[in-house]
Amino acid sequence: MFKELKRKCIHLIGLLIPICYYFFREEDKFIAVTILFALTAIYFSIELLRLTNKKAQKYFLTHFSSFLRTHEKQHITGTAYYLLSAFLSVLFFEKELAIACLSFLVLGDMFAALIGKKFGHTKILANKSLEGSLACFAACLVIGLFVAWLFPTHLTIQIVAIGALTATIVELLSLWIDDNLTIPLISGLVMQVLICVAF
b/e string for 56-88 if b means 16 or more Cβ within 10 A? Predict the structure, then answer.
């Protein structure tokens, strides 16, 4: 539980991306996209080095193994997928949607894991629990409504609720594809489509 809590607290650093993006003007979107592209490219280059060079791999395992899940020691980490999803979200989605869906991932996934491990007695799929999924939905709904309050435009309560539900379902079903990639992109896409249809 402590290791999971430690990882999820580090996970909160991911909120820096949507928070920083909030302060970018609409006309500066290209700058945000460029920065995220550069960060993603650099991080994937480091990942490639770590996975192909034995000395680099030994260094990372010595210094950062406590932050890695078992499968991440020999594969691409969740951080790399998060940076990729952040880049794609900012590139393709409206500003408020990018901020919302990235926040869904950071907070929804965190609460799902922590509540699920502590109170998750009703198992749904594999290691997923009803309690964890409800916590994920509640966290996504709250942060989504907060983002809608910050951007009183197209992000309605109904769209936020559907986006939060989508993020929860994706988190529940992300057994083979990393949810750092799927949660923001799928929930963001659903909300983007709903906005296009509604407005």
Answer: eeeebeeeeeeebeeebeeebbbbbbbbbbbbb
